[in-house]
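Researcher: Please generate the 3D structure of the following complex. Treat every line as part of one assembly.
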Amino acid sequence: MGTEKIIEQLNTLIELSSLINSTLDTKEIRKRAIEAATRLMDAEAGSLLLVDQETGELFFEVALGEKGEKLKEIRLKKGEGIAGWVAEHGEPAIIHDVQSDSRFFKTADEKTAFITKNMICVPVKTKDRILGVLQAINKKHNSFDDDLNIFNALANQVAIAIENANLYQELRETFYSTAQALAETIEKRDPYTGGHTKRVMNYSLAIGRAMGLLKKEIEDLKLAAILHDVGKIGVRDDVLLKGGKLDPDELEKMNMHPKYGAEILNHVKQLRDVIPGVKGHHERLDGKGYPDNLRDGDIPTIARIIAVADTFDAITTDRPYRKALSLDTAFEELRKNIGTQFDREVVDAFIRAYKEMEIVL
Amino acid sequence: MGTEKIIEQLNTLIELSSLINSTLDTKEIRKRAIEAATRLMDAEAGSLLLVDQETGELFFEVALGEKGEKLKEIRLKKGEGIAGWVAEHGEPAIIHDVQSDSRFFKTADEKTAFITKNMICVPVKTKDRILGVLQAINKKHNSFDDDLNIFNALANQVAIAIENANLYQELRETFYSTAQALAETIEKRDPYTGGHTKRVMNYSLAIGRAMGLLKKEIEDLKLAAILHDVGKIGVRDDVLLKGGKLDPDELEKMNMHPKYGAEILNHVKQLRDVIPGVKGHHERLDGKGYPDNLRDGDIPTIARIIAVADTFDAITTDRPYRKALSLDTAFEELRKNIGTQFDREVVDAFIRAYKEMEIVL
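Model: Done. Output below.
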């Protein structure tokens, strides 16, 4: 390869590395890595197979390129196929005639009507483990023979990006799980959790997705749903744990909890966009809710969503004074209160999500 | 510049980019960026100045190279010096004779007896803001004239790495702050916080650092200190909020809280190494603590640390049945109980940290 060509490749690699490292979202990294493999190698298609760290299987999470979208579902057992061989040995492979290679796993071609001719395949690895395998398929001109170093360098950048994204994701999960464990306990004031928080979170997320909320809004919604009842810490045992209906005085104390919740979370500046969901989850469209008697559009979207999710869970689980009611009754109850208590768009999205099996009840 | 030289530089850039992007620790990124700038530019020294996003000032956080360590304290006002000019305009600068450049800020040279001759200085920026300025000082051979593209490419990688580290750090702070807000409220069962959790966390961290704990241990300690009292959620109001000394029966209920805390956090698999600190913070070296009557070395280090921090805070703050006692009394109390209740190494570390002003009381 001429030096001009080498310089061009190196510059492309640098540009693609920046792109791959500019996100901490694993899906986005995978997409960019596949595009980069295809472009850097001047190939017809590219793919990134990731190792399932529990089973050792390789899976195609995404696969772009001309016909790549169809590859989404394929899994290779440990050691299966050329990619499996590469992952198992931690060594690269350049195959000039894939069809005659005994290791070749034909299922992908069969499912897609794509014909794999030649291939370069390198491990994506960190110091201590193999994260996956990066492939480029069907070089458009010449062969992959001179490409090993540069493709390895790309795989190295992909490994770094995936590792960073994994660390970020792990921290996020620790955060959510810890908040959930604490919130769940606060809600019941008991170290044994009942699952209300988790269910309200799941319902809220299903509604939010059905409504097409943006990523940032979904994240705020998730945290607000987890934390919606933390203000119950400010309600005394005699009210919170009472085994029957509350009298007006007790109800007034109980109804302080959205306000208390907001006060607690006001200490965390990063939760600025989460607090309105906590504070407003007992507001009603007709202004008869609490704590601020907000109306209609003045009630933040995430609060309107949590209100529906929270009520639905209250109806469909046992209460101290009655047994759980049926799903039909619950949906009927939500529908009946559209416009007064609940937002039509939110209730519709919930029913849609339920019908599309986005929610397991 | 010859093509061989260009290829060598590009390969070096790729190697250094991997290194810079392989960490989410801002300090480590800065150190690696400075080493990379020096090496890639074949210069005598390098530095990375970061923008203080609040004041617009540029500051030298670290500065390696031959005499760089002395630069730690320097701050440039907005627009001051060559670096200030670069940060303000978002444009690079190559200066052949720094001493005759009117923008040159001489303080750094004066403080270090280092003589800046020539310099390449480029902005470190993301799509929407300037994070800092990367410099290389005194080219060893020739001039910086051909280096602009490659140095800009390095600065771009540094920007990506800093941005990722910032996102990770922000998420971590959100996590800690949220856990702290919830834990603090649980401890008092009141939406208005008293600060016990925060103080115990600060004392614990000071002790941990004085004992030379590893980074991972410090992180576990921090979370355990924040969460040490969350089990109090399982103690009823009549005991938790009693305004006087507890009778033996009440004390028994109160003493369930470390066990409850462990039960709550057992739901979070990522907190595996944190839980022993929560569960063991009322154990005593003589085996007379609770809940497991552990002895000496069987008590996890982080639990032994939190025990000291927790007791110290209890002594030095007002209780329902007595006023806060003096620091001298508190330290005396800790010392007196070395070997029976407390670990000598922990108490010594605490006193050392206090004397070295690592703790503000």
